[in-house]
Amino acid sequence: MYKLSIDAMSGDLGSAIVVEACEMFIKSHHDAELYVTGKKEELEKLSSYPHIHIVDARDIVKMDDGIMSVRRKKESSMVKAVMMAREGIVDGVVSCGSTGAFYTSAMLFLKRIEGVEKSCLMVMMPTYNGKGMAMLDVGANAENTAEQLYDFAIMGYIYAKNIRGIQQPRVALLNIGTESKKGDETHQKAYQLLQQSDRLHFVGNVEGRDILSGDYDVVVTDGFSGNIALKTCEGVAGTLMKMIKESMMSSFKGKLGALLAKSSLYSLKEKFDYKSVGGALMMGFEKAVVKAHGASDAKAFSNAMDLAYQMVKMDVVGQMKEGLSQK
Amino acid sequence: MYKLSIDAMSGDLGSAIVVEACEMFIKSHHDAELYVTGKKEELEKLSSYPHIHIVDARDIVKMDDGIMSVRRKKESSMVKAVMMAREGIVDGVVSCGSTGAFYTSAMLFLKRIEGVEKSCLMVMMPTYNGKGMAMLDVGANAENTAEQLYDFAIMGYIYAKNIRGIQQPRVALLNIGTESKKGDETHQKAYQLLQQSDRLHFVGNVEGRDILSGDYDVVVTDGFSGNIALKTCEGVAGTLMKMIKESMMSSFKGKLGALLAKSSLYSLKEKFDYKSVGGALMMGFEKAVVKAHGASDAKAFSNAMDLAYQMVKMDVVGQMKEGLSQK
Known about the structure:
Low-confidence stretches of chain A: none
Mean pLDDT of chain A: 91
Strand order of the largest sheet of chain A: 3-2-1-4-11-10-5-6-9-7-8
Largest sheet of chain A: 11 strands, mixed
CATH topology of the largest domain in chain A: Isopropylmalate Dehydrogenase
Subcellular location (chains A, B): Cytoplasm
Subunit structure (chains A, B): Homodimer. Probably interacts with PlsY.
CATH superfamily of the largest domain in chain A: Isopropylmalate Dehydrogenase
Strand content of chain A: 15-25%
Largest interface: A-B, 59 and 59 residues
Order of helices and strands of chain A: EHEHEHHEHEEHEHEEHHEEHH
CATH architecture of the largest domain in chain A: 3-Layer(aba) Sandwich
Number of domains of chain A: 2
Structural class of chain A: alpha/beta
Number of helices of chain A: 11
CATH class of the largest domain in chain A: Alpha Beta
Shape of chain A: globular
Radius of gyration of chain A: 20 Å
Oligomer: homodimer
GO molecular function (chains A, B): phosphate:acyl-[acyl carrier protein] acyltransferase activity
Enzyme class (chains A, B): transferase
Pathway (chains A, B): Lipid metabolism; phospholipid metabolism
């Protein structure tokens, strides 16, 4: 059985959507066992499923609690879920609570894979060809060494290969030019490490303008630049959609056009909505740690659960251990 | 008279558009004098204007020449234009040649303002409210110190105040969070320097997702992150426009809608087109150095000339000297 702990309480939309997601999930995953943490009276509906265990947790880490609140909120659904991973009861943990708090509790309570200096945050980004790419680190670290960037690359590569089923994932380094000598010392050195490695398929530097082209499966970046790139993507996409809407509404012809084109535009918005991607992965820990988006609906949350399940089933952590031990 | 040198040869579209731009410019700027460098037989049309001097230059720095080509191509229109600024014949220089080569020739041949450790590249970015904001450095440097970021902020502030006429430009620092303690040591220190300064109006950190909001007039960033942010903007905008087009073309209703909405979408594209902004400024030199876009038409090129003219007329360099001497 593949065992996961599920934090039912920390999302913006409360426990109801998590309960629904657990029901959806357990019906289609017969080799999975869930430990759901939260106020037991809100989780009663799940008690009829033999593979779901309800773990009563009276406290909640709120979205606006400081990240360090996880130190004292030991009775919270989030910390209890993480502790079950720490204690080896489960191999994966899923939460849709505050990213900062969840990441901090993973850092505080979970072991890192041996040889990994820094854990990091990975997100799936939409690409032009619709296949998406994985970018890491998108902000867990304010700065990284070349060796850490190399570790991120290995982790992203193993993820793309095993979870996304890509035979030979194309790994690129986010930099300010494509030539090997571009960027600061750290990025030049990272380029060398990646270039020399026979444990992944490095295709060179990628500039900001090409990350969404679909030509790369994994984009490796230091946490500072990665965070800037991720948030700039979000900002531009949001601004542009808003401008398109207004620009079309400013003339009668445009308005009529917008009306007719609405469903096309809407489906596009979905495709480009970072929220629909279903979450971020916290990489480098001995357990699968998946952050579902705070505003996840039941479908999105169960997608995040499925991701954690796949990570456990494919033993991605074990493969990362192996990949990273042979540096 | 305000004197500018104009490189007529290095753009993608040849000298004809520069000749046209010079004619447009000189008719509306009676206190300006131009020194136009290039093959004199291509510039003949300009010889009838008393305030235009033709400076014969037989060589051309091509777009795909290495940046160091400016060292040997002393007879090129680009280097000759820069040398006229070096020799004090003009106070500003405009080119639409290769950004790298033009920036390198400024670094090689022009003095930096005293006290400025690093020159940098500044671009105007479109914002949601249509007013735009200035971002610097967008890639001249691969890394920067906190003190250099402070210099960039002062330069951006003085530019926004004098050239854009903003009473109290709002200066923000691009970072991975809004709190003062966010980011690496350099950015934390830069925050302190900016916060303590009474020579500009610092409004705090800005994240990637908010740079285009219109809430900031100047966004200060190290060259690495700034380059990533700029190019990510370009990439997302381009990808999104392409996806919108295809998504609309995939259904009959969408197609009809697109047809009707075409002019709205087109005007939006213009607004968001980094090419139409008219160029980048190379900041930190004792002369006004303006890079017009390589594919500039006559109107865009004459906008770039006007920018250089305004920089000279308002003595922006002089004000930067003053602002930077009082750190």
